[in-house]
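Q: I'm writing up a methods section and want to include an example of the input and output format. Could you take the sequence below and give the corresponding predicted structure tokens, formatted cleanly so I can copy it straight into the document?
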Amino acid sequence: MDFGFLSTFAVVAVELPPGRVFGIDQQTFIQIIANIINVAALAAVLAYLLYRPVRNILQKRTSKIQGQLIQAEEELSKATELRLKYEQRMEEVEREREEILGEARKIAADSSRRILSEAKKEADTVRERAAANVEMEWERAENDMRTAIIDVSAVMAEKFVSLAINKETHDRLFNETISDLEGMTWRD
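A: Here is the clean output for your methods example:
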């Protein structure tokens, strides 16, 4: 421990008159008044040197912050306005998209109906041609068959006649065959 402090305190306590801890005398009043004047002067000098510049700096900073707040509010209002315009534009785009899709669906349905109608007409035409071709082939086959039957009959008759018939029998059979053929109906 440091006993130097205690020794200093003991010296001061010994110098005071007995029974007195703090002495209020003229010297103490002069020191108190001098200290008050020094503190007041120091406060005035510090106020002049520090308070005004600090207050000016704070005012500038306050005005700058207020300017930034006003600017931020303006930008916020602009951003809100832009957002509203964007939302309106998006709604318009959505409406236009729905209209375009509706028109496209309508066009696709019309086109589908038209294509189906044309395909049906074309199928009917192909079917009719095929039926006409079948009918022509059938008639051609019948004609070919008639011709073949006539040719075979002629060949058979010629052989039969040449082998077994004389001139009178030949003429009689020829007339009967002709009359039979004339009375015959052919299938169409």
